[in-house]
Design a protein that fits this description.
The complex is a heterodimer of chains A (240) and B (79). Chain A has 240 residues and is of the alpha/beta class. Chain A has a single domain, classed as Class I glutamine amidotransferase (GATase) domain (Rossmann fold, 3-Layer(aba) Sandwich), CATH 3.40.50.880. Helix content of chain A is 25%, strand content 24%. Chain A has helices at residues 14-24, 68-77, 87-94, 151-159, 218-239; strands at 2-7, 28-33, 44-47, 82-85, 101-103, 111-119, 135-142, 146-148, 163-168, 187-191, 197-200. In chain A, the strands form two sheets. Chain A has a nine-stranded mixed β-sheet, with helices on both faces. In chain A, strands 5-8 form a two-stranded antiparallel sheet. The longest helix of chain A is centred in the last third of the chain and has 22 residues, at 218-239. Chain A starts with a strand and ends with a helix. Chain B has helices at 16-27, 51-66; strands spanning 2-9, 39-45, 72-78. Chain B is elongated. The mean pLDDT of chain B is 96. At the A-B interface, loops of A face helix 1 of B.
Chain lengths: 240, 79
């Protein structure tokens, strides 16, 4: 399987994402420079964390004009799986590939800590190996992760079960005290209606080795491996 | 012509920076400052002498780049 990790000027978690795919999970993985116009045959695209184009106007605002995003958009239209992590999530929001927008954290501080998350949707390519209600302990690191969607859109997200992860306390309860940034409905991750595009503020690529404090991020990568492999099986069967 | 674009969070969107500034002003004794909303201000120097055209161009730029319509609205002045 081949991962494509998009690199914008200012991305800084691209190496971590590539390391996760290549060194930890033993897959092929390549960087895709933001000026590239094709995805080099990638089966899955990761938009990594960082500060794409400096985030000077709004987080992720300029990245959608990068040439590679045309190819990403076409890939999404074909049903290809795309994961945006942190700044990658912000880029997907600004590009209109996911609903909603990010505001400054309500603390006005850059929040860098481990958080607890509850998996609410397992029917996405990035959570298919998780159990509904499973708890994950994964770090966040962001200043603008205060997810917002207007009430009508929020109701739609809930009705379509597009909320993939929510911040929760160590016992799995979703409440205001366990919400690190003020996100509406404690949202840490959403998917699009077709469910092939997922954005998440927490960093699964930073939680894949015990040496680095935990392995709960592995399930995100295991899910994508499983999803792509199982999507391929019918094609192989037909070919035989 | 010059276009001035004022971008602010929509009234329905919580503004943590504005709230913090309001709290700071209250602690300085400005209790009659009821609320503060923070925004962004852009000055665009445009190669056009026609106000209608300037406004249209500024609106296009604001829609496309300067403001995020999910959370922000904008106001334009030209002169």
């Amino acid at each position: 399987m081949r991962f494509g990790v998009v690199v914008f000027p200012g991305s800084n978690c691209d190496e971590d994402a590539l390391y996760a795919a290549k060194d930890v999970f033993g897959q092929q993985a390549e960087y895709l420079w933001h000026k590239d116009e094709d995805l080099k045959g990638a089966d899955v695209i990761i938009l990594p964390g960082g500060f794409a184009h400096g985030d000077y106007l709004r987080t992720g605002a300029m990245a959608r004009f990068s040439p590679v995003m045309n190819a990403v958009r076409a890939f999404v239209d074909r049903g290809g799986p795309v994961l945006g992590i942190c700044n990658g999530f912000q880029v997907l929001l600004e590009a209109g590939l996911l609903p909603g927008a990010m505001l400054r954290n309500r603390s006005l501080k850059y929040q860098c800590e481990h958080v607890h998350l509850r998996v609410d949707a397992t029917d996405t390519p990035f959570t298919s190996r998780a159990r509904a209600g499973q708890m994950l302990h994964i770090p966040i690191g962001h200043g603008e992760g205060n997810y917002f969607a207007p009430p009508d859109q929020l109701a739609e997200l809930e009705a379509n079960r597009q909320i993939v992860l929510r911040y929760c306390d160590p016992s799995g309860q979703v409440n205001d005290a366990s919400n690190p940034n003020g996100s509406v409905h404690s949202i840490a991750s959403v998917c699009n209606r077709q469910r092939n595009v997922v954005g998440m503020m927490p960093h699964p690529e930073r939680a894949i080795e015990r040496l680095l404090g935990g392995e709960d991020g592995r399930v995100i990568f295991e899910s994508i491996l499983h999803s792509i492999e199982s999507a391929r099986e019918p094609a192989v069967a037909r070919a035989v | 012509m010059r276009a001035r674009v004022f971008v602010t969070l929509k009234p329905s969107v919580f503004d943590p920076q504005g709230k913090t500034i309001a709290d700071a002003l209250h602690s300085l004794g400005y209790t009659n400052v009821a609320d503060v909303r923070q925004g962004k201000y852009f000055e665009l120097d445009l190669d056009t002498g026609e106000a209608g055209q300037a406004k249209k161009l500024a609106a296009e730029v604001a829609d496309k780049v300067l403001a995020n319509p999910v959370i922000e609205s904008y106001r334009i002045e030209v002169d």
